[in-house]
Amino acid sequence: MRKFLYGALVLLLAAACAPKDGIRTLRTTTDKEADLGRILEKDGPVKVRLVVKNDLPDTLFPLRLYTPCGCTQVNFSRTPVPPGEDEVLEVTYNPAYRPGPMMEEIVVYYRDSPVRSRSLVIKGEVIGYTHPIEEDRPYHFGEGLYMSHKILHFGAKSPGETGDMYFRHGNGNRKKADIRFEIPAEWQPYLRMRQPGQMKADERDTIHVRFTMPEGIDTVKFAIQPYVNGKPTEIPLSIKAVKK
To answer: Is residue 193 domain-shared with residue 111, that is, in the same domain?
Structure first.
């Protein structure tokens, strides 16, 4: 009975101390990394409240913030922080497409203060997941082939000038497929790219394409025909360029 009452008391105290808005609070310092723990990418952005005590003898006057990565957004107040009081920052970290260990810096700059800036660090482990193929390869060419571009436009090029582009492709079939691109014979000397070949089910990759502007042509426009298991897709991949 005593164990039951003790457990219930602990739960009540934990509930009373928990933030009403549901945002987890982490107390940290400039020489301690705030550990966010495991972050599930599929759950989207996570929010935490960082609390940092002003352990200096003078008041801090927050001025601005700096975060190197756009994945980290911070809300803060420019309200002065007297000695012994807490500075509070609300941090939102977006784990999208960032699987694996993460570590991001947050720098707070001050004016008329005993220090010019203070650096805080958040860390954690992003648990990734397999995104739908349409997210970054939105164009379905047919036969289960998905790609990031319909048109590869190399822009304005002088005759003999070479340009580089990359496009993403993927096998959206539930079984392996042989994927190849047929380049018209007359353009093969000017366009270089590798063939995907055999791809596993849901396999994704990126292809580097190199195009050299030919002499005597003002406008380049031709198509590359993709084939999946020997069958042509419904639409081709277009190549465009103009003479500079």
So the answer is: no
Contact 219, 243 (CB under 8 A): yes
Final residue before a domain boundary, out of 111, 127, 143 = 127
Instruction: State how beta strands 219-228 and 191-192 pair.
Output: unpaired
CATH of the domain at 44: 2.60.40.10
Three-state secondary structure along 101-132? Answer: EEEEEEEEEECCCCCCEEEEEEEEEEECCCCC
How do residues 62-109 score in pLDDT, each as one tens digit?
Answer: 999 999 999 999 999 999 999 999 999 999 999 999 999 999 999 999
Strand order in the sheet with 117-127: 33-40, 117-127, 100-110, 62-66
Residue (of 116, 2, 104) closest to 48 by Cα position: 104
